[in-house]
Every structure is written in structure tokens, then in C-alpha cells.
Write a structure and sequence with these properties.
Helix 2 links the parallel strand 1 and strand 2. The protein has 9 helices and 7 strands. Helix content is 36%, strand content 11%. The protein has a single domain, classed as Rossmann fold (3-Layer(aba) Sandwich), CATH 3.40.50. The strands form 2 sheets. A 5-stranded parallel β-sheet has the order 2-1-3-4-5. The chain is α/β, with parallel strands linked by helices and 275 residues long.
Amino acid sequence: MRARRFALLAAAAALLVGAAPAPDPAPAPVLPGFGKILIASDSTASVYGEDRYPQTGWGQMLPCGLDAGTEVVDLAMAGRSTKTFIGEGRWDGLMARVQPGDVVLIQFGHNDAYKAKPERYADPATTYRDNLLRFIWQVRGARAIPVLVTPVGQHMFGPDGKAKANFADWSAVMRELSTPTQTPLIDLEGLSRAWLDQTGEAASRGYYLHAPAGAFPGFPKGIDDDTHFSELGARRIADLVAGALKELNLPLSGHVLAERPLLLRTTPLGRRGCQ
């Protein structure tokens, strides 16, 4: 009798267990929210003092396209390639500041392509590629988001009237790495060349660092530079970067202003601020 009662109780318990709802699935891991932007790059993105006005880096103007309180840490440095950025300890210094949720913009190529200075040169298929992979994995290891940015175009045009792709091999490596590593990419070379083509060679000249003698204290002899930007040029390139960031669907994307009038100015402010 007792054995039969025990069997009935066991059967009832089994029915109750079978009828019980399945436990809720484990919650998805909570990813860190957006923190700040850090920029690893060269002179085209770096910060310049008032003594160098109108020379301006696009990274210097990027905050003007973001909502108030979004922090941009611009660690770009003139003359640096992936090779020297690592060799001088600048990359390690940047990584020491990276926190979960940060976005690291990585734009190199101008100096990596400079064969006349072997200390800078990084072969696109080997050294440059390996350095980019190191950047990607280390940023990911810090639970931050790497974004590859192809080298920005120069004010140089071919016989067909189109802006030249002077860093095509280095840009190609970035594009090639983006897919298998699932790394967000801003094709700034393509975006800037399309903008140059649309604007035209003559009209776009003022966006680069061209000034006659005596126009600016920092350049008493004048300057003709087809690589670096004036205030207006830096604003316009920063707008291209900001627009691309908004389209990447990252946590950062919601902090990019839908309208960026300060970056799309047609006359210089005579300063680099966002006020």
C-alpha cells in the first residue's frame, strides 16, 4: 500500500514538473553604453594652437557635430604613421585612457606611405595590416569599439579632373580588414574625394591650407599645402566623419547632431570653436 501511494505521489510530482513553465532564458549580456571618442591619427586630424591658424585638424572640429557633453580626446600627432604611433608609445598611451564603451577612430596612411622616411613607412600588405589588426584587437579587448577611417583625400586632381586616390593601397587594406573582423569602417577617402569632385578643383582650394604672404601671423611667407586643412576645410571633413558615424548605428550614433551648421559654414569664423 505504501509503495503504491509513493508511486502515485511520484507520478503527480512528475506531472507538475512537466506542466511547469520553462525557466526564462539567461539575460543577454549588458553592453557598456557610449563613453567618449578617442582619435589615433596624423596631422590631418590633430589639434593646432592659435599660432598656427588657419591650420586646423578635422578631429579638432568634430565636437561641433556632436551633442553637448560628448567628449573627444584627440591624440592625433603630425608626422605619425601606424609604425611610429606604436614605436613612440603613443598607442599604449591611448589604450591607457580607453574605457568600456569608448569609440576609437583610427586614421592612418599618409605617413605610412612615405617611403622617403623609412622610420615611418609601413608596407600596406604587411606592417600596416598587422598594425591595424593590433589596434582592432586591443581596443576590442578593452570592451571598446574600433572604427577604421581611410586616409582623407588631398587637394590633388588628375587629368580627368577627378580627385586622386593617393593612398589607394592603404585604404584598400582597411576596407579588406573591415569585413572579416566586423570592424566599422568610415571610407573617408571615398567620401572626401566625392566631395572634392562635386566642389571642383578651384572652389575646393580654400578648404586646404593656402594663404598668401602676410595673411596670417603663423605663415608670414604664405603657404601652399594640398594636404592640410584650413578652418573651413577641417569643419567640412569633420562633417563627413560625423555623418558617417551617425550611419554606423553605434551607441555613439545617437550623439551626432542631425543638423551640423557649424561644420557646414561657407565663411570662416576666424577661430576653431563651436560657440
